[in-house]
Amino acid sequence: MQTAIQATPPKVVHTIPATINLQEEVKNAHKQLRVAAYCRVSTKQEDQLNSYDVQRRAYTDKINGEPGWTMVGIYADKGITGTSVKKRDDFNRLMRHCKQGKVDMIITKSVARFARNTLDCLKHTRMLKEHNVDVYFEEQGIHSIQPGAEFYITIYGSIAQSESENISANVRWGKAQSAKEGNVPFHYKRFLGYRRGSDGKPEIDPEQAVVVKRIYERFLAGDSLATIANDLNTDGIPTPSGIGQWQRGTIESILTNEKYKGDAVLNKTYIRDCLSKKVMINNGERPKYYVENNHPAIIDSGTFGRVQEEMARRSGKRKVKQVGTKTEQGRYSSKYALTELLICGECGTPYRRCTWAANGKKKVVWRCINRLDYGKKYCHDSPSIEESVLQEAIMKAVMQTAKQNAEVLKTLKLHIGMGLSAETTEDNSLDLQIRIAEIEAEFQKMLKAIAADNVEAFDEEKAKTLMDEKAKLQIQLDRIADTKQKRENAKSRLDEIFTIIEALANHPISYDDQIVRQILESVIVESKDRIKVVFIGGLEVTQLL
């Protein structure tokens, strides 16, 4: 007799034959029924672990208490999700043993304990059925190898998956609310420079902060990511996690993380769905939140901004195709500062360092890449310059500038500072933020006023006007923030340049790649006996070779 399907399925499905009959059928094929138990808890909390131990003991007693059963083993996963089988080691081990013919029946508490993914649940029960392995779900009273069982497994599996999706949605909502309130999570064990303070908030770890500052300083001094990583490894500096070696990716992460200037961006990534649990980069699919002045800064805002500019500059280097190469030259080189700075005054192509050998002697020179690769086809008169002569001329220009009287130095500061004053705009960001908040409140009020019987009364034109105004105000707000950041970056550069120049005025030094990188924008080769040295900020000094 068939039983009608109710809205809420009964706990025990009566259409399936009695358990004892199934066991008798299996016993006919095997003298002893080889039985395994599978149990799982999804968290590592103490009460869940107690449940885990209770399940193990209960299944051990149950299997050993049946005279016709032989216990194959208890397979158990703890602290593991049920929405995917990939990381459930004992579950996968059990599946292998079933395929090897070592198991006749599996006992598990429920469909939800076996799998919260309907597809996984059906896939594995079907596979087990092909190997004559039965799965008995105690809570539902279902044997997987009986006729019609798959229908009920699908129903209960869908319920279990739906529960996981609801839990995931609740967690996602909770995280979104937390982000809106500006709550910033810190993973101290893998985050260099900070530790949990006595008040539970982040505080600077002085010893680790020294390493963070070193990384920023060396990058701005011209070192590549790989060079910084290698130097830290050589000096035996522990990585953020305390294990393994420093890698260029770790250095890049530290240099681009806004937390080091005391701010935080929330929702940088998100979980695509509760089944795959794949972490995705948030490119606008979910709201992001920027929290300013959340915790003490290790790196000042100006220095952080300069690092981001330098990152962009290195990655956006002009590409130059060279003879004998398959790709264009555009990769940043930290070995020689002039590789980045020395430019041909005739064709605008970078110069390249070369070693000449003649009569058993070697000489290092710099040559225009166009002239070097194509002769006079594209560049007719660019000269080759000996490195020592070039370096001496550059430092002479720098030293002369540093030793000039106060009026010349004042002029230099004026040139560099022009960018700051030119970009000064009225800061009405607070007014803009207030108006944006008012628009959002008004829009939410309009939405709440909608009821099922007056949907058509919603003023779409007014809503569009509000959203358009909000978008324009946001653009203005972003522009002001961008201008303020640029001023911070320029001020930081300005301070550093003049600290170096003023020091050079009293302590002359020989050519230094690091100093050249920090204060010069470019060096233009105008002729075989003249170069133009361009300081950051625009001041130009002509120097004879």
Structural key phrases:
47% helix, Hect, E3 ligase catalytic domain fold, four-stranded mixed sheet, 545 residues, five-stranded mixed sheet, alpha+beta, 17 helices, Rossmann fold, 4 domains
Task: Explain what this protein looks like in three dimensions.
With 545 residues, this protein is of the alpha+beta class. It folds into four domains: 19-167, Resolvase, N-terminal catalytic domain (Rossmann fold), CATH 3.40.50; 202-306, Putative Large Serine Recombinase, Chain B, Domain 2 (Hect, E3 ligase catalytic domain fold); 317-382, no CATH class; 399-545, no CATH class. It is 47% helix and 17% strand. It has a five-stranded mixed beta sheet with strand order 2-1-3-4-5, sandwiched between helices. Strands 14-18-19-20 form a four-stranded mixed beta sheet. The longest helix is centred in the C-terminal third of the chain and has 47 residues, at 460-506. The chain is elongated and about 100 Å long. The N and C termini lie far apart (106 Å). The relative contact order is 0.06.
Structural class: alpha+beta
What's the rounded overall pLDDT mean? 75
Number of domains: 4
Gross geometry: elongated
- The N- to C-terminal Cα distance equals 106 Å
Query: What is the CATH architecture term of the largest domain?
Result: 3-Layer(aba) Sandwich
